[in-house]
Amino acid sequence: MNNKIKNFKPLKIVATAGHIKTLTEASATKALSELIWNGFDASSKTVSVTLNSKILGGLETIVVEDYGDGIPFKDAKAYFGEIGDSWKKIKKETYHHPLHGQNGKGRFKAFCLGADVEWHTTFVDQNSYSTYSIIGNHNKIEEFKTSELETNSAAQKGTKVIISNLYKKADELLKEKTRSELTKSFAVFLTEFPYLKLNFNGIKIDPKSVQSFTKDYDLTEDCNSITEHPVKLTIIEWNIETERVINLCSAKGISLEEYEPKHRIKAKGFNFTAYLKSEYFQELENAGALALRELEPTVGKIIDLAVSTIQEHFRRRMAEKYTGIVQEWKDENIYPYQDKTTFTSVEKAEQEVFDILAANVQTFLPNFEKTEKTSKKFMFKLIAQAISENPESVQKIITEVLDLKKDDQDKLAELLENTELSSIISSASIVANRLNFLDGLDDLLFGERKKIFTERDQLHKILEKEAWIFDEQFALSLSEERLEKVLEKHISKLGNRADEVNVTDPVMLPDGRTGRIDLMLNKVDQPRDGEFDYLVVELKRPSKKIDSDVLSQIEKYAIAVAEDERFLNVKAKWTFLAISNELDAYATRKANQRNMPKSVVFQDGELNITVLVKSWAEVIANARAKLQFINRHLQYEVTQENSQKYLKEAHEKFIPKI
Q1: In this model, does residue 309 exceed pLDDT 60?
Q2: How confident is the model over 131-173, as pLDDT tens digits?
Q3: Which label site among 4, 440, 616, 646 has the fewest CB atoms less than 10 Å from its CB?
Q4: Number of other CB atoms surrounding residue 424 within 10 Å
């Protein structure tokens, strides 16, 4: 085999003209940007673009000139004769400013604008200036030609790219938006390196001239599980109309890829571009993975963090717009947050929504300024309370109470939608209510009401509305039904199979009695098509310990369901859970068996039945731990007063009097 290999002749891989032409595809501005980058990469401090127009309109030639090192004659073949490699790969680590490309493809973008391209270049050769040209034609794109080398003592170092025989696409560069697009593309780079200059048709590109606001954010800590490289975010707001994009940049601000957030960012009235800067993106680009960001999950995670930061940025910016008018409300003593000095993150969000909404209400209501102070204060208090306690009702206040015109209603509704805060406030309200419930339930089960708190008439009724405490993935399906109703409920979900099964007979327990369940929950999002997960909860009054009798009862329930002929061959997973304040010694041992998950006392893989027992302390602790993880960001503080208030409002008729 080895001898045969020695006799093989090598085959050289050559890029075809068809393949090379695919490298020329780009918008006019993108193609021009590549040539500008090449000028800066050639160590030029200034790059100039000149558009030479025809007498009758349209462009005659495009000239991109730099004053860098030029292209040494001996390197022409390496620079222009190879694709997929570049001198920049060798020098990028030691170069004095970041290099844009490294695959030798950028030069072909010139052919996107015109059929003929000339690189007229001057370099220093043994202390003297030498000049020559490299020319190419789109029809023979796989072949470049060089002129004779000439000595030119009066010349200046650099390269002039002259594009002629232009395509119609090139005329797009005459549009006013070209300057703004170039400004946005080079904004961070020119800001990072202020000694570099870009001139477009005689006018200096100045990023700051069209910037209205700039803010930097450090996302390094949030991204430390993804990359060890720093990750920075720069948000630039423009005073010109722009398309919203997030540029994925190298650490020094060279844009490598663009991501369009589309409708993910609500920032009405703002024009902005975001720049995510990290050497991590450069590494992905070098490996050819950055363009496949949809397949690279780490990039998606960083973008998600950036989007979240950008959303928060514009929430603050929108709130800042109304600082002056808020001060007027404070001076008039009608501001509902007048005396509040410290805010949780949720309370701050509520305040920001109020400021935005109230300022616009004042604008839309023609007689607001003439309204009595007391009425203004009441109106503001009403809006603030609605935002805090029931964000969904704000729209009703706008429609019915303020009696605004339809157009004004629509504008305010859109404003609320753009803040994206009502959902945050609603979520915060849910978390706060659940934390208060856990605190209140703990008091009912273990406090002085324990002895008079009954399982059937009180605990059961409360838990019907708070079934989330057992498992967030399940929702209440049935309550206080005989066990045969469990079957009936399940079989009805099987479509045509329901007609084949008789559910009129009760499910019989081994001792001849019929069974009854307390709470039955079904999984909201079923994991498998045509299969169903159910959770059946057996409640015991606080004073009743879980013992062998309780275990026997719950196991009989489980086995009755599994062995009933109407459930044979039905795809369902059943979990039975018995709960009380305490487990006796026997139940505790059963709930801690070797090679069994904690709390599991019975498991039958063939019948798909699992039986668990838990104490209320364990259930409450698990639920509280999940909520506290979220609450670290919401900063809601649970107090006895708040928990008792919630219980009274939500479950007053089921709470025993002391």
Answers
A1: yes
A2: 999 898 888 877 788 888 888 776 788 999 999 999 888 898 9
A3: 4
A4: 19
| Cα Rg, the chain, nearest whole Å | 36
Q: Are residues 462 and 523 in the same domain?
A: yes
Range among 30-39, 266-275, 282-291 with highest mean pLDDT value: 30-39
Closest C-alpha to 612, from 598, 623, 622: 598
116 vs 139: CA distance, rounded Å? 9
DSSP string spanning 551-578? HHHHHHHHHHHHHSGGGTT--EEEEEEE
Cα–Cα distances (Å) from 617 to 73, 98, 260, 445, 509, in that order, read 81, 59, 48, 9, 30
Q: Is position 191 within any domain?
A: no
pLDDT at 517 over 90: no
- 233 in the same domain as 132: no
Per-residue tokens: 491: 């079989």
Summarize pLDDT for 195-205 with one digit per residue, the tens.
Answer: 899 999 989 98
Q: 484: which 2 tokens?
A: 């045969």
* 338 and 269 housed in the same domain: no
Instruction: Report d(CA 109, CA 389) in Å as an integer.
Output: 57
Tell whether 489 and 616 lie within a shared domain.
yes
**69 within some domain:** yes
| Same domain for 24 and 148 | yes
Whether residue 241 sits in one domain with residue 387? no
Instruction: Using a cut of 0.90, tell me whether the model's pTM lies above it.
Output: no
512 and 589 in contact (C-beta within 8 Å)? no
Tell which residue, 109, 151, 133, 253, has the closest CA to residue 193. Answer: 253
Structural domains in the chain (count): 4
Write out the DSSP string of 333-347.
T--TTTT-----HHH
Please, is 141 exposed, middle or buried when counting C-beta atoms within 10 Å of its C-beta (0-12, 13-18, 19+)?
Answer: buried
Euclidean distance between the first and final Cα of the chain, in Å?
95
How wide is the angle at C-alpha 103 spanned by C-alphas 101 and 109, nearest 5°? 75
- pLDDT band for 233, please (50, 70, 90 cuts): very high
The answer to whether 198 and 186 have CB atoms below 8 angstroms apart is yes
Place of tokens 């057996």: 538
Residue 633: closest CA among 418, 415, 391, 312: 312
Rounded distance, CA 238 to CA 247, Å? 15
What proportion of the chain, given as a percentage, has pLDDT over 90? 12
Do 621 and 526 share a structural domain?
yes
**Looking at the structure, do residues 141 and 211 belong to the same domain, yes or no?**
no
Round the average pLDDT of the chain to a whole number and report it.
Answer: 75
Mind listing the pLDDT tens digit for each residue in 311-364? 889 878 877 777 777 888 888 888 888 877 777 766 777 777 777 777 766 766
Asked whether residue 655 is domain-assigned, the answer is no
255 and 275 Cβ atoms separated by less than 8 Å? yes
- Tell me the residue range of the domain where 605 lies: 449-634
Rounded Cα distance between 422 and 428, Å, is 10
223 vs 220: CA distance, rounded Å: 5
CA–CA distance, 548 with 587 (Å, rounded to integer): 7
Between CA 350 and CA 379 the distance in angstroms is 16
What is the DSSP track for 408-467? Answer: HHHHHHHHHHHH--HHHHHHHHHHHHHHHHHHHHHHHHHSTTGGG--IIIIIHHHHHH-G
